[in-house]
């Protein structure tokens, strides 16, 4: 068989392995569509050239159409390979991407093996809302997540956070800084995340002493809490240390 036939028969497992070598979803999202676009672009140019010389290059045109069909087959395999690689990934980061509710939830429903999820706000902003967090919480991977970052997600409220954390029972590390959550979220985290080791509440100005103390009291594996930029008083820090003497409290910039 020729090289084109070999491309058509490229094993899915090989593609999956290649895509798994890409460090971030950002890279995957950039290069796969670009490669597919380049393949079709050059095939289109070649097809146009053949059409101009149809009489002379009739056989060549047939060959080009054959190559086009094979390229289409390869693209289908690439799509399948990407789908399987997402299913095997243990970490996904959408930080800095303008993701919306539907696209994020759709991808996470494919990420069966996911352990770490980062959808922090970046320079382009993020369109994920409470509805998005509710949809994400229905994904099978959520119960296995050990790390979640929702840093700077100003479009979410207690409603979405409570929905998500109610199913994230394996959570160990949570970054929810820069959001407008209240004690309601902290109560939900305390009730549903018994393995929590670290939590970042940076600049969460609506949480109070009550929520923080409940969190520290119920999350018995908690090792670190960041309350920088909050309105938590020093007396609360003393109370937290009374509950958990080894707790590492980051409290710079208290207001």
From TrEMBL:
Organism: Tripterygium wilfordii (Thunder God vine)
TM spans (from-to): 31-57
Record has Cytoplasm as a keyword: no
Gene Ontology BP terms: SCF-dependent proteasomal ubiquitin-dependent protein catabolic process
Keywords, in A-Z order: Membrane, Transmembrane, Transmembrane helix
Protein name: F-box protein
Residue ranges of every copy of the F-box/LRR-repeat protein 15-like leucin rich repeat domain listed in the record: 141-218
Pfam hit, one: DUF7885
Matches recorded under InterPro entries: FBXL15_LRR (IPR057207), Leu-rich_rpt_Cys-con_subtyp (IPR006553), LRR_dom_sf (IPR032675)
Annotated GO CC locations: SCF ubiquitin ligase complex
């Amino acid at each position: 068989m020729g090289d084109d036939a070999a491309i058509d028969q490229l094993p899915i497992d090989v593609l999956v392995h290649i895509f798994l070598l890409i460090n971030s979803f950002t890279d995957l999202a950039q290069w796969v569509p670009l490669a597919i676009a380049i393949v079709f672009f050059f095939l289109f140019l070649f097809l146009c050239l053949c059409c101009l010389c149809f009489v002379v290059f009739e056989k060549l045109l047939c060959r080009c159409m054959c190559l086009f069909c094979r390229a289409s087959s390869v693209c289908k395999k690439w799509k399948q390979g990407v789908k399987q690689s997402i299913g095997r990934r243990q970490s996904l980061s959408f930080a800095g991407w303008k993701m919306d509710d539907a696209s994020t939830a759709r991808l996470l429903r494919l990420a069966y093996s996911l352990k770490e999820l980062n959808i922090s706000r970046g320079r382009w902003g993020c369109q994920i809302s409470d509805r998005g967090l509710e949809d994400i919480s229905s994904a099978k991977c959520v119960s296995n997540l050990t790390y979640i970052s929702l840093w700077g997600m100003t479009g979410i409220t207690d409603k979405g956070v409570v929905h998500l954390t109610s199913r994230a029972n394996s959570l160990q590390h949570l970054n929810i800084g820069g959001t407008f959550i209240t004690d309601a979220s902290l109560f939900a985290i305390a009730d549903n995340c018994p393995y929590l080791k670290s939590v970042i509440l940076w600049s969460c100005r609506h949480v109070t002493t009550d929520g923080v103390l409940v969190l520290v009291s119920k999350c018995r594996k908690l090792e670190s809490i960041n309350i920088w930029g909050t309105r938590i008083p020093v007396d609360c820090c003393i109370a937290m240390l009374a509950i958990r003497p080894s707790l590492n409290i980051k409290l710079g910039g208290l207001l």
